[in-house]
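Dear colleague,

Thank you for sharing your sequence with our group. We've completed the structure prediction you requested, and as agreed, I am returning the results in plain text so they can be pasted directly into your records. Please verify that the sequence below matches your submission; if there's any discrepancy, let me know and we will rerun it promptly.
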Amino acid sequence: MSDKELATAVHSDHICLNYIDFLSASCKKRWSFVDAIYGVMPIFGMVTKNSPDLPGAPSERLKALALQIISTQVSDEINIARLITLAEQQHIEQFDILLPYPLSEQQLETIRQEYVKPLNLEQHDDRLTINMPAFSH
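Please find the predicted structure tokens below.
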């Protein structure tokens, strides 16, 4: 799957991830035992394999790492909370996720609870915009 398919847009540091493409890639992925554990066990959910061949730009690393943690075995809310955590780790404070459907208010609240830290979630039809308050480096 090409980077173009995984990120619908990257304009002047603006990132828009296509969640549907990540789920599709997850379905096609040949899972090892360790991958399966990472995907279904919440405690291991954010363990990612560090690799020297990861791209240098934070947005590109986010896409590469997201392929490791997005799983069809967990809920969309958990997957999205994991994406937000990855974005924070890559020092990305704002990005969009293109979803297959608009999320309910209950689903948005579940994402907020999963992520724990303060964040703003704005939904415009099937596009979810995530804004995290500036964090200290």
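Summary note from our side: The CA atoms of residues 29 and 106 lie 30 Å apart.

Kind regards,
the structure core
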